[in-house]
Amino acid sequence: MIPLHIETHDRHLGFDMAESSSLKSGLIINAPGGVALTYQGSLVRKSVGIPEVLQFVIDVSTNIDVGLFGAWLYDKVKGKSVERIIINRCVVTEITEHGVRQALEEEIRSGESVPNYRFRLTVRASRPSLISSTLRGRQRRTD
Asked: Is-contact 104 70, C-beta < 8 A?
């Protein structure tokens, strides 16, 4: 699962992406390329000039066509008042079809190579012991 945030001044963009007149949290949008895009909600700020943030999650548990999905996403945002697209904390600096596709590919690739460790460490009388899984963390190699 990869988070996707779209910062926009266009209050209708979410409805356009869902191709629906209603939009609620948990709505699954079947996008091209075999992508299931789940709408998580919006952050609406009441200040003037501050964009709304549409929050989605991209399901990458199956094989997807990144090029097709990237083209679809770009087609949905082009011509709209979009400030930024953030894919798993990676800011798309160039909002073009190529820029969106490149950011998607990088995030999917980096997510495949990072193992998901589950552990909990407790310290009792200064003796650490490893017990069953409750803490979920992702670690990246920095070397």
From this structure: yes
SS3 35: strand
Task: Say which residue the tokens 């190699």 belong to.
Answer: 141
pLDDT at 111: 66
CA distance 73 to 120: 39
Statement: residue 63 has pLDDT above 90: no
CA distance 10 to 44: 11
pTM for the model: 0.72
Structure tokens given for 103: 């950011």
Domain residue spans of the chain: 2-115
Q: How far is CA 107 from CA 2, 4, 35, 114, 134, in A?
A: 8, 11, 15, 11, 25
